[in-house]
Amino acid sequence: MPFNEKLIKNNYPLKDLTTFHIGGPADFFFEAETAQDIVDAVNYAKTANLPYFVIGGGSNLVISDKGIAGLVIQNSIKNIKQIDFDNQTITLSTGHMLSELVNTAEKEGFTGAEPFAGIPGSLGGAICGNAGAYGKSISDILLEAEILLSDGVVKTVNKDFFDFSYRTSILKRESHIVLSATFALKQGNPEAIAQEIAQIKATRKTKHPGKEIGCAGSFFKNLPPKPGESRRRAAGEILEKIGAKKISFGGACVYENHANFIINKGNAKASDVRSLAKILIDKVKELYGVELEEEVRYVGRWD
Ligand SMILES: Cc1cc2nc3c(=O)[nH]c(=O)nc-3n(C[C@H](O)[C@H](O)[C@H](O)COP(=O)(O)OP(=O)(O)OC[C@H]3O[C@@H](n4cnc5c(N)ncnc54)[C@H](O)[C@@H]3O)c2cc1C
After folding, report:
1. CA of 283 to the centre of ligand 1 (A)
2. Rounded Cα distance, 96 and 207, in Å
3. Which listed residue (64, 139, 167, 274) is catalytic?
4. pTM above the 0.90 mark?
5. Which of the following is catalytic: 64, 122, 169, 218?
6. I want to staple 137 with a disulfide (CB 3.0 to 4.6 A). Which of 18, 49, 132, 142 is the partner?
7. How many CB atoms lie within 10 A of CB 230?
């Protein structure tokens, strides 16, 4: 079916498409349900000279109160789900949630996806930010992906294309869009897999706010390891030491159970979140001489 411009909505509210429940509208908005929809929407934006931005689960974003200029494309592509038992791979459209990968792997007795249990968001967002937990990142299991390059070409790329490192990839620098992705797993012990997933989900429940509380997960990246050490230093520990849990700004405050989570008390503005983040960054710099860097992404009009 040809691209239907009438499906593009004007001045579309975005806040409830994010887990922070904060932010202004998109000038233009389109929900893509197939890879072709994404290709067409990007072509439309280019022809109309509009910037474009893709969102998945909105769980790693702070959208400006003034909204986002241009076309926001919500990736809801869920039409591909292939399991290759011979090669032990799972291929999914990137509008699927990361939980779909974890659940499918669990169901098929594949091991490798357990550490990602409980991380919200889509597979596209997980690849963009190289999401991870428990010492594993999505780059550890990604094999290849089909991608719409910023020059309009659709092609299959392998993992090296993404230039992954800690919580980042080329997708944070260039406007390529991942359409589907194949993950390499291994045959495992179904009971052990199920047990690990249940355990991880239970642990996350004790540390993280429930869905009713607006947040975007860990706000800052963990700090690089000290010389001679291999593990990153938890940003939450240093934030705990500066008394972050007692600091708030407007409707934004630090979560009582996790000093690296900024939460929306209900009526926070994006500017409150950003101001609170700045206070925390400045205090950590002043007291410990280190610079915290946001893991969340600020998007939209900020000046
Ligand atoms: C309670 C909670 C707990 C969390 N725990 C963790 C955790 O343990 N580990 C962790 O790493 N993160 C965690 N997060 C953060 C977040 O869930 C992840 O970063 C997630 O992978 C983001 O996916 P998303 O679909 O929501 O991305 P979005 O927030 O929608 O977008 C994030 C970025 O990805 C880009 N993007 C989205 N889809 C595509 C695509 N198809 N192609 C190209 N770029 C794309 C967007 O343009 C944007 O730049 C947590 C968040 C919450 C709210």
Report:
1. 27
2. 25
3. 167
4. yes
5. 218
6. 132
7. 6
Residue of 174, 243, 250 lying closest to 22 (CA atoms): 250
Sign of CA dihedral 173, 225, 281, 260: positive
pLDDT in tens, 247-291: 999 999 999 999 999 999 999 999 999 999 999 999 999 999 999
Neighbour tally for 217: CB within 10 Å: 22
Q: How far does residue 228's CA lie from ligand 1's centre (Å)?
A: 31
- CB 268, CB 63: distance < 8 Å: no
Q: How far is CA 300 from the centre of its chain?
A: 16
Pocket of ligand 1 (CB under 6 A): 19, 53-61, 75, 94, 119-122, 124-126, 128-129, 131-133, 171, 177-178, 208, 215-217, 297
DSSP lists the bridge partners of residue 183 as: 90, 142
